[in-house]
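Reviewers of the previous submission asked for a worked example of the structure-prediction workflow described in the proposal, so we include one complete record here. The input consisted solely of the amino acid sequence. No template or homolog information was supplied to the procedure at any stage.
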Amino acid sequence: MYKLVEHTADIGIEARAGSAMLVLQDMALGLKALMFGESPALAKSDAEITVHAEDLTELLVCWLNEVAYWSEKDNLIPAGFRIEMLTETDLRATISGEPFDPLRHAVERQVKSVTYHQACLEKGPEGWHAMVYVDL
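From that input alone, the workflow returned the following structure tokens.
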């Protein structure tokens, strides 16, 4: 599971899971919660996201920025995330969601970007760990 971490002008997201795929999905769920709280969403439409990066940390930051961009550009709220392919430099995933409805959904925070400040995606003795700070 993910948790939100308070920081001076930003907020962090941190997750631990048994695999890199699961920790990346949990981080996306954390970003959704940061942006929309516990607003429910239905999987009415899907979009495929592909990300290429130089390393795992950059992959994490780019993935979360793509999630935020996907939501912002088409005024959508995510319902789910499915990572279909993952290497140390590439990720392909499907995001499902629905159009934002102010009668059903709340906006908790506006995300400017996910930053590289203290960002990490790494495997440790007890599984995978990820951390980012989000510029609000």
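The chain has two helices and seven strands. We consider this example representative of the routine output the project will generate in years two and three.
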